[in-house]
């Protein structure tokens, strides 16, 4: 089973890298961008075939390592 | 005062810290590799600056979960004075021993210079040799020193005297110009500036010296 994890900065947390991307796109002539936020994408190949236990385990991985919940949110997709 | 410096792959201020500790305490610190599980009893634990694990995932994230940190967390929670500088501060926030997080500098640049800062609380075990409100000059060298915590946490830190140092000017976007904080108990200090690099005039100043002397005085 594959887990696809997105880690993003919480709303209200300033994202200087996202801001820099937004400005660079503007400078390149892409004037349709209102805001950019940068995050992380992590893909895991899991041994587990049981969806419920995998979900629980990946959630724990996110809380304990993959995301810093002081500043970040995460979302998990399993397939 | 017996001390230990914890060394991670990618630490690069571990020797600066060791030199400072030896000069000030008169005893060579124990150098403890991150894969160890235990080390001799010490009076003071230092987490040095650097780029442990190449800053993979987040600064300090990997180190905070290393074998040796389980022991460091146990001892810090038991009251052993524990001091993290720069990457060491990032590691302390990642372990949860200190609140908040250190994010990319607001200006996106690596900031490397001497900065003026103010001793906000001179009643901690790390700052008692300073005067309250004393202005000191200490170098910084970091890319991720932008201290972030939610408003409630910031109010609590300020209200409880847990803010040890503040920058005199905004250098990295840190909330309320916070340069260093202690835990609620007061035995864990994390700060971005490098006092171990300012311990004698030959290094450009000795404003960092009193930090180590404060701890020595406290330990007697």
Automatic annotation (TrEMBL), chain A:
Keywords: ATP-binding, Cytoplasm, Ligase, Nucleotide-binding, Purine biosynthesis
Lineage of source species: Bacteria, Pseudomonadati, Pseudomonadota, Alphaproteobacteria, Kordiimonadales
Catalysed reactions, as listed in the record: N(2)-formyl-N(1)-(5-phospho-beta-D-ribosyl)glycinamide + L-glutamine + ATP + H2O = 2-formamido-N(1)-(5-O-phospho-beta-D-ribosyl)acetamidine + L-glutamate + ADP + phosphate + H(+)
Entries under InterPro entries matching the protein: PurS, PurS-like_sf
The protein's assembly and partners: Part of the FGAM synthase complex composed of 1 PurL, 1 PurQ and 2 PurS subunits.
Chief place of localization: cytoplasm
GO molecular function: ATP binding; phosphoribosylformylglycinamidine synthase activity
Localization, UniProt: Cytoplasm
Protein's name according to its UniProt entry: Phosphoribosylformylglycinamidine synthase subunit PurS
Domain of life per record: Bacteria
Chain's gene name: purS
Family: Belongs to the PurS family.
EC number: 6.3.5.3
Pathway(s) served: Purine metabolism; IMP biosynthesis via de novo pathway; 5-amino-1-(5-phospho-D-ribosyl)imidazole from N(2)-formyl-N(1)-(5-phospho-D-ribosyl)glycinamide: step 1/2
From TrEMBL, chain B:
Pfam families, per the entry: GATase_5
Active site residues according to the UniProt entry: 86 (nucleophile), 194, 196
Entry GO CC: cytoplasm
Catalytic reaction annotation: L-glutamine + H2O = L-glutamate + NH4(+); N(2)-formyl-N(1)-(5-phospho-beta-D-ribosyl)glycinamide + L-glutamine + ATP + H2O = 2-formamido-N(1)-(5-O-phospho-beta-D-ribosyl)acetamidine + L-glutamate + ADP + phosphate + H(+)
Function: Part of the phosphoribosylformylglycinamidine synthase complex involved in the purines biosynthetic pathway. Catalyzes the ATP-dependent conversion of formylglycinamide ribonucleotide (FGAR) and glutamine to yield formylglycinamidine ribonucleotide (FGAM) and glutamate. The FGAM synthase complex is composed of three subunits. PurQ produces an ammonia molecule by converting glutamine to glutamate. PurL transfers the ammonia molecule to FGAR to form FGAM in an ATP-dependent manner.
Organism the protein comes from: Kordiimonas lacus
Subunit structure, as described in the record: Part of the FGAM synthase complex composed of 1 PurL, 1 PurQ and 2 PurS subunits.
Protein name: Phosphoribosylformylglycinamidine synthase subunit PurQ
Database matches in InterPro entries: Class_I_gatase-like, PRibForGlyAmidine_synth_PurQ
Pathway(s) this gene product operates in, as recorded in its UniProt entry: Purine metabolism; IMP biosynthesis via de novo pathway; 5-amino-1-(5-phospho-D-ribosyl)imidazole from N(2)-formyl-N(1)-(5-phospho-D-ribosyl)glycinamide: step 1/2
Chief subcellular location: cytoplasm
Gene behind the chain: purQ
Keywords from the named record: ATP-binding, Cytoplasm, Glutamine amidotransferase, Hydrolase, Ligase, Nucleotide-binding, Purine biosynthesis
Subcellular compartments: Cytoplasm
BP term (GO), one: 'de novo' IMP biosynthetic process
E.C. no: 6.3.5.3, 3.5.1.2
One example GO MF annotation: ATP binding
PANTHER family to which the protein is assigned, alphabetical: PHOSPHORIBOSYLFORMYLGLYCINAMIDINE SYNTHASE SUBUNIT PURQ
SUPFAM superfamilies assigned: Class I glutamine amidotransferase-like
